[in-house]
Amino acid sequence: MNGRQAIILRDVRLAFRAGGGSFQAVAFFSVVCVLFALAAGPDLRLMSKIAAPVVWTAALLATLISLDQIYRADREDGSLDVIVATSDELALTAAAKAAAHWLSTGVPLIVATPLLGLLMNLEAGAYAPLMLSLVIGTPALSLIGAFAAALTVSLPRANLLISLIVSPLYMPILIFGAGAASAGAAGDPQYAANLKLLSAATLFAAITAPLASAAALRSNLD
Question: Full-prediction pTM beyond 0.85?
């Protein structure tokens, strides 16, 4: 096992422990969906229509609340300084941190989606487009969030600042993701176009975010 695999396993293990970010994210995700369902009232057609955008919005917000934890444990125990000082390929290490965040936050949100879809009266044909859009789009949320966490790593409790940084960067992901899910459910030909744009956004984040995260870590910890 190499060092980056060890980082991923350690972060995932910490996230799933009692008080870890995974359960908090899923709980917040569920609460947001329930609140939207209650706000929609007894109109099942309206609820079904807004289900995909609501799930995407809830997933984005649930991701936001866990971003501060990406580097928190490493910062608190001093290992982050060692990682930055000794890592020859810091961008790959930053990518591993983003991957661990997605495995411990994004994947549980995706797993919880079918159950919340039932609550939101999601149509049977809408599940596959919604799930596929989340699988493609949520890694970008973790990659961009990891960059924001690296940018503010020297600041204690930077949740609000991280949210301000990532909010405009998350908007294209939300638009393309919710658009793909809604178009797929309606059989709209724009489904493929939205899915391609979402894939392109995630690919762009996968290439640029680890490099930007590495530069931010070096700048903050010099």
Answer: yes
